[in-house]
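Before a colleague's protein record goes any further, I have to sign it off. I want your independent view on whether this chain really folds as the tokens say. The record follows directly below this note.
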Amino acid sequence: MLQQTQMDRGVFYYRRWLERFPDIRAVAVAEEREILKYWEGLGYYARARNLHKAARMMVDRHQGKIPESYEALLGLPGIGAYTAAAIASIAFNHDIAVVDANVERIFARLFDIAGPVKDSATKKWIHKKAADLLPPGEARIFNQALMDLGGLICTPKNPACGSCPVAEFCAALKAGRVHERPVVQASAKTIQIEMATGILIRQGLLFIQQRLADDVWGGLWEFPGGRLEIGETPEEAVIREYREETGFAVEIVAGITTVIHHYMHYKVVLHAFSCRLTGECTEPELREAQDFRWVVPQDLARYGFPAGHRKIIEYMKKRA
């Protein structure tokens, strides 16, 4: 939950999650729609789906408990090398080193590493060095101490070198290069995407569809729409996307709002319009979705939506 999320926001989601899903079995038996709804707003929804799958696997294969071994943890959906090492060492005290951004920064300064810390060779060297330094039987303390050292003392900006317990061993400090370490690779340039979506209204009901499971934001619900083509207006894009995605023929009634949201290194400008059917057909031919609903506005709160669509819903809700 804390990936790309501020701590206070993460705590709010965590507490709300535990009230609804107090243990692994509660997650395992829940429907995916509810899982995604409780995750709504955190983004990176594949994490929620993997958490759901992992809970079911733990119930089926591990008696509803989190497995202890590093290898078994790696076998759970959504758990990679870092998470498996963190659980195995901190929860079960197995002798496995945990390397996160804090540890990378500490080692880059401690050993004055000149190469980018995200370079594969550098990452491999840091992992080996961390494993070599780990005192047997003290992985839990050692790994958490490194994380705290990076979070409180050896910070990205203005590190408190005067208070650092390992300052005398820091090669970058001796060389006067603390602020040059770690070396980071240039961040990806922000790419702006212009999109449009239509809120289709029929007899007081709104049309929503569920994204394909393997799609971006898979399993979430949305109003049909998509990216503008070259030379296309947002209104024209809505009409085309409805025809391509659902087979519906629609016309624009009015503009609603334009919202902006960010996804990875993309800046998405999303134009929203209200629209209505121009034909008699009310059953869609779904081509890019797995399910659909005609819902009253109040029921939108029961479904999980991507960030941009959720902003549109909040805008409409405030203005009734």
